Amino acid sequence: MVKQGKSIIRVTPERWGPVATGGFPARLASGGE
Fold first, then answer.
1. Which phi and psi (to 5°) does residue 22 adopt?
2. Would you state the pLDDT for residue 16?
3. What is the DSSP letter of 33?
4. Rounded Cα gap, residues 31 and 33, in angstroms
5. What is the rounded distance in angstroms from the CA atom of residue 26 to the CA atom of residue 24?
6. Is 21 within 8 Å of 15 (Cβ atoms)?
7. How many C-beta atoms surround the C-beta of residue 16 within 10 A?
8. Residue 9 burial by Cβ neighbours in a 10 Å radius (0-12, 13-18, 19+)
9. CB–CB of 25/18 below 8 Å?
10. Would you give per-residue pLDDT tens digits along the chain (33 residues)?
11. Distances in Å between the alpha carbon of 33 and those of 5, 14, 16, 22, 23?
């Protein structure tokens, strides 16, 4: 569980990098709007 949790946390900032800066991914934007 600890290993999996760390893996997700490590991948999250990389994938959601642009989101934190204010750029929303087209995938989420497409689903929401």
1. 115, 5
2. 60
3. -
4. 6
5. 6
6. no
7. 14
8. exposed
9. yes
10. 566 656 555 555 566 655 555 656 556 655 554
11. 30, 24, 18, 16, 15
